Amino acid sequence: MPFTYRRTLHFRDTDAAGVVFFANYLALCHEAYEESLLAAGLKLADLFGTDDLLVPIARSEAEYLRPLKVGDGVRVEVRPEALSANSFAVHYEVYRSGSPEKLAARVRTEHVCTSPRLRERVPLPPALAAWVRQG
Amino acid sequence: MPFTYRRTLHFRDTDAAGVVFFANYLALCHEAYEESLLAAGLKLADLFGTDDLLVPIARSEAEYLRPLKVGDGVRVEVRPEALSANSFAVHYEVYRSGSPEKLAARVRTEHVCTSPRLRERVPLPPALAAWVRQG
Amino acid sequence: MPFTYRRTLHFRDTDAAGVVFFANYLALCHEAYEESLLAAGLKLADLFGTDDLLVPIARSEAEYLRPLKVGDGVRVEVRPEALSANSFAVHYEVYRSGSPEKLAARVRTEHVCTSPRLRERVPLPPALAAWVRQG
Amino acid sequence: MPFTYRRTLHFRDTDAAGVVFFANYLALCHEAYEESLLAAGLKLADLFGTDDLLVPIARSEAEYLRPLKVGDGVRVEVRPEALSANSFAVHYEVYRSGSPEKLAARVRTEHVCTSPRLRERVPLPPALAAWVRQG
Q1: Domain B3-134 maps to which CATH number in 3.10.129.10, 3.30.1330.30, 3.30.2380.10, 2.60.120.10?
Q2: Which residue in A92, C60, D46, D112 could disulfide with A29, CB within 3.0 to 4.6 Å?
Q3: Does B70 touch chain C (CB under 8 A)?
Q4: Measured at the alpha carbon of residue D70, what is the angle toward residues B123 and D14, in degrees to the nearest 5?
């Protein structure tokens, strides 16, 4: 069972074309990723705010299938995938609530563990590696 | 009892100083305002997306009392206040979760009902007026 | 010669990890796209704000090659590419200023002309088609 | 002569109501503040990214006088004002380009110099104090 994140879309997510701005689908998926990490007991500040570890996104891909509007409910499914000792991918499916629910976007991000201090790639810390395997 | 909106703070809310960007406290309060309207059964797209009605914010004030970090939980209390037939204010208190919970910001916005078509101020639509009175 | 957009990176572009938030690379490229359209004499409000035409992004891909910080200057090169009578792609290269300048990201977006009123794909309007050919 | 910052408004600045989102007027003014500091030779990363100095905003006030649309040009005037050894205010006037130019918003922010390490207010660093006096 993938982790699921739900929320309502707000004015802040949209632009003057009347629908959610394309870059905000990615921001929404990142929220879902953070909520999934928090739900697994990981502390975001420890994971990403230190000089020993940064987990930047190296690549993103998104297919925008349906427009999303202010007030729409969305459900985001989050599925991590191991890539190597130092990297992982996350797959997201964004569903617009309704009867029936509709797939609105597919997003994929690639993440690489690096040490700002050592200036090189480092293995995933154990708690993050466990989160990836769980997916 | 004021309407209460809760959520976790995300990377998207913060900036390189390590805490939530000051303008995003206002965006957070606007989310709480939208959620309060939705909870009262109002449709955001009908209220703000037509040529007959726009409810722009004419004024905002904010006191930033404590920094907020990625992963912090917040609770926003929303209290509308009637100002005139055409306008209302909304008062927000943003609390950072914890034991004890701490007041992190006080925000106030002023809203004016206007008709883009008529190019003048118009009375609040009944559903919005009822929401203001409820507060 | 591709169109070039330059600006400084601001706190608003960054997050608590200390660098530009990944989704904001896409927002930055969209700014460059809008500036390129404006420089060619197209009016954004006419192009994207009517019931007759919407040009949503159907797909995006991004490679994030280097972190970008507050105060960094960036230069974005914009290269449109025709795909069909109804669609086009835009290629972006984001360079971080310095001696030497460094490639910080490669982004690609795919755009589809649609008519919200007709609920179907429509050919690019002539001014937009001319902008794509110019690229 | 106050410092002046100019740019075009983008889709990212707007929301589904068709105009610039109210919190983004504040983000725009903060950009102008950053550009003013950079123009005076201050390094943003040194000023705001260290454990010895943080200059958070303690208060903001904004009057939104006119809507701003995608493609509009704006000019922001920045005027700092000394408040105490530890604090200063910045006054902003946002003008929408055109013939004639129109005042679109008045914004004021209050900034307090603090040391995260010492957990107390500290005097403005000399370069920042000089920038405030210049205003």
Answers
A1: 3.10.129.10
A2: A92
A3: yes
A4: 60
